[in-house]
Amino acid sequence: MSDDEITADLQAENDVDAEAALVNDDEEDDDDVEQITAQKVLEILETAWINEMCAPEILPNQTDMLELMVSQVSHMEEQMRDLDKNDFRAVVHSMELERVRYIMASYLRCRLQKIETFTQHILNQEETREPDDKRLSPEETKFAKEFQGHVDEYFHKVATQYMPNQQRGELDQRIVVPNLMSHVFLKANVAVPAVIVGVDDEEVDMAPGSQHIIPYQLVADLLQNNQAQLI
Amino acid sequence: MDPAIIEFIGEKCMISIIPNFSNEPLHLIYGSVGPFRAGFPVFVPLWMATHLRKQQKCRIVPPEWMDMDILEEIKEEEKRSKFFTKMPSEHYMVVAQLVMSTAPDDVPRCEELRTVIKDIFDIRESKLRTSIDAFIKGEGTYAKLDNLTLLEIHSVRPILPYSLDHIARYQRTATASQRDTSMLSASMAGSSTGPGSNSLFSQ
């Protein structure tokens, strides 16, 4: 490969960051995504990943961000195809892409685990939510429903059909529910005044960057508003 | 969370290296690094530094705080203070471990540094254990943990939240059964579960 080509490649790579984020823009209705850079997307995904790992319940999905990142990754891989495998740049870029892919995979895997554990509970909750408010992506919903179907069918085949009638159909009692009062480690991103921290309505003011251990339910809304993150 | 994940997160820290090659800046998703000029220091993420060091393509410049005098001072301060002092890096253990294992030759007085960093960690760990003991006996449900690093939090992660969860569950059960026996006592029990907040961990 000539030197000129390498420079051209690099030039193209320079533009990747800004461009790829705009690729999906035409398909999006809202303008929030317009200005976002790949770096910002990665930060959002990282925070979502760590929050998801630490939170007892399933959090809102990040499909938009994931799609942006997936297209960014494949775009960069496309451009790297022509680079020599031992080229310094190729090695470093592919190392970073591996890291990004790990975050995305680990994030999705973590969500699937929660879906498998709390299937019925999550599906029930999703039904009560408005279409804009859904926490699962359409694919995850499909997975949850099919998983639920298979588990039910399996239990029916191996066990429940041989049981007396009154012991079947106790669906409500079989639901596994996450313990929302379980304790989590939290870091405040901004100053949050008057957070209720105890059973007797005791309040504290959280300074930016301060860390706390606290029952999840008391701070769940801070996570949604991005005022704090789990650690 | 796995310790490997803590390391993964810590590897994002920036560290200075002196490359022995030259190259244009690299535009990573995480941000741009470079340009690389042989012999001139440049900041790169830790994961890249360890990789380049293994390939013999650079020397790692230890962070400023990786210095005997500074660390001895931190250690003394940590001993004196009742609370946790602020560490020079959010991931000091991860950084120290990675730098010293990949590039022991780049760090002057490496072995001594290793010992003093371990000492600091041990002092903090034992302080953490004492505070947790007092915290749980005080029946709190909330505490401030300022200045603790991720690895230190992780070292108590399985046991502390779980035991607090269990205590909370017993308290709820106790409240519920009290309510069953007498309506009168229930109204009082509802407002007497634990003294609540506790801020043993910070000043």
Task: Describe the protein's architecture and organization.
The complex is a heterodimer of chains A (231) and B (203). By secondary structure, chain A is mainly α. Chain A has two domains: 38-172, Methane Monooxygenase Hydroxylase, Chain G, domain 1 (Up-down Bundle); 179-230, Ribosomal Protein L9, domain 1. Chain A contains eight helices and five strands; from the N terminus they run H-H-H-H-H-H-H-E-E-E-E-H-E. Chain A has helices at residues 3-23, 38-54, 63-80, 88-117, 119-128, 138-158, 171-174, 216-224, and strands at 183-188, 192-196, 203-206, 211-215, 228-230. In chain A, the strands form two sheets. Chain A has a three-stranded antiparallel beta sheet. In chain A, strand 2 (192-196) and strand 3 (203-206) form a beta hairpin. In chain A, helix 1 (3-23) packs antiparallel against helix 3 (63-80), helix 2 (38-54) crosses helix 3 (63-80) and helix 3 runs antiparallel to helix 4. Chain A is flat and about 70 Å long. The termini of chain A are far apart. Residues 1-33 of chain A have low confidence and may be disordered. Chain B has one domain (1-134, 142-163): Ribosomal Protein L9, domain 1, CATH 3.40.5. Chain B has a three-stranded antiparallel beta sheet with strand order 4-1-5. Chain B has a two-stranded antiparallel sheet with strand order 2-3. In chain B, strand 2 and strand 3 form a beta hairpin. Chain B has 203 residues and is mainly α.
> If you consult CATH, what is the topology of chain B?
Ribosomal Protein L9, domain 1
Number of helices of chain B: 8
For the termini of chain A, the CA-CA separation is: 46 Å
Low-confidence stretches of chain B: 185-203
Indicate the topology.
The complex is a heterodimer of chains A (231) and B (203).
Chain A: H1 3-23, H2 38-54, H3 63-80, H4 88-117, H5 119-128, H6 138-158, H7 171-174, E1 183-188, E2 192-196, E3 203-206, E4 211-215, H8 216-224, E5 228-230
Helix pairs in contact in A: 1-3, 2-3, 2-4, 3-4, 5-6
Chain B: H1 3-10, E1 14-19, E2 26-28, E3 31-33, E4 42-45, H2 46-54, E5 58-61, H3 68-80, H4 92-102, H5 110-137, E6 143-144, H6 150-155, H7 159-181, H8 183-189
Antiparallel strand pairs in B: 1-4, 1-5, 2-3
Helix pairs in contact in B: 2-4, 3-5, 4-5, 7-8
